[in-house]
Amino acid sequence: MEVLELILLILATVLFPGVVFCTYYALFLEWVDRKFFARLQNRVGPWITGPKGILQPIADIIKLLAKEDITPNGVDRAGFVGAPFFALTLALFSLMFVPIASTSGILSFKGDLLIVLFISTVFGIIIIFAGYVSASRFSIVGTARAGLQFVGYEIPLFVSAIIPALIARSLTLKEIVEWQIAHYPLILCFPAMIAFGIFIVCSLAKLEKLPFDIPEAETEIVAGWATEFSGKKLALFRLSTDLKMLLLAGLATALFLGGPAPWGFTLPADLNPYLAALIYSIWFVIKTIIVVLIMSTLKAAFARYRIDQALRGFWRYLTPLSLAILILTPIVAYHFYW
Amino acid sequence: MGILDRMVKWARIRSPWILHFNTGGCNACDIEVLAVLTPRFDVERFGILLKGSPRHADVLVVTGPVTRQVAKRLKRIYYQMPEPKFVMAVGACAVSGGVFRGAYNVHMGLDQVLPVDVYVPGCPPKPEAIIDGVVKLLKKLEEGG
Ligand code: SF4
Prior knowledge:
The structure holds two protein chains of two kinds. Chain A is an all-alpha fold. Helix content of chain A is 68%, strand content 0%. Chain B is of the alpha/beta class. Chain B is globular, with a radius of gyration of 15 Å. Classes of the chains: A mainly alpha, B alpha/beta. Iron/sulfur cluster (SF4) binds next to helix 2 and helix 4 of chain B.
């Protein structure tokens, strides 16, 4: 019995819903993002690679893996080689906490929401590190911008992710999801829907997507912090960006959209666990795609901000707003939800 | 050819990222190159993306006559690109020097400086011609490897 459980756990970590599933699903989400973004701009987007271009992100990754891998003179060798691996490993590790095929992630313990948020903060630091060790003037400028943006978005992101935890009175993702199954998705609750908006905007900044792609603004500073990375290292960074997008979409799903549970009906408790896992993952896919489509729409609707405009937006509006709803939440929740 | 090689080749043909470099042209060619990327022609359907950094790019798209001053910098950009890399000469100026051919300050075409894979003549070439050039490059890749 114990051996079987161990094998199942290993399968869950490696295959589904672990590393392999997350990698392919993240690449699929990149395709969804690119295609929808292109359609909004009246383009066709990826088209010839696989049906409707669905294999495009995979082709990109394979091509980059097969390219020459240059380590320029003057870089810090260990840091330059290590940074992409760190980024990828941390992204995969944090995805273990996201509830995909059941109400809890593969790893789940008390207070795991804080761990996930902490790891997502480390991503920002890795980007700063990667730009700093590559010792090129464009990377340094990009790094400085990444650092500035990092201090802007991190606080509202954290606070907006804590608000669902306040309403559900738990810092564990599993219990937040179960609270939503027992009651209703948190996006329908008054202060949490504002928090959802803040979370999405800050996720765009974290992913360096369009209105906030200041650190890699290709029209100004070549490719920002990623300028010197080529071949395999660039492939790992691209993959880790996709995984980060999946992580943030998954977190938004778990925190605000009721996790992987279906909307409108609850699964009976005595359902076959494999069937339940299937239904849960289908709903997870639907909800994460919805979140990604919201992000792509915002991407297409806004042009890039200057760094001072972005910082002013974060510090003047989003941070005070998020702190205000942080104070408001317990009052509202005390009267209506607890 | 092993299955791995075939996969790599498949990926290479389907995701050529370009780097656009103007060596001193009159900007008409550049506008046509940009038109290739915008909604009407949209080469992202072939997986082509415009990249800012030579380290990320596969294809160097050069427009304009190669002046003596820019030749050294052009070479430096070329050496910064990771293998395998390809060069496209777009416009009469880049192909042969065009109207500036024979002038004291320009090279007689890009191939005096760099190995060129595809020539796209025209002054400026139409976006269709540039796409045709890209397709020829991809076909060359498919046959030659
Ligand atoms: S080929 Fe013609 S359009 Fe192109 S840069 Fe030369 S002169 Fe200008």
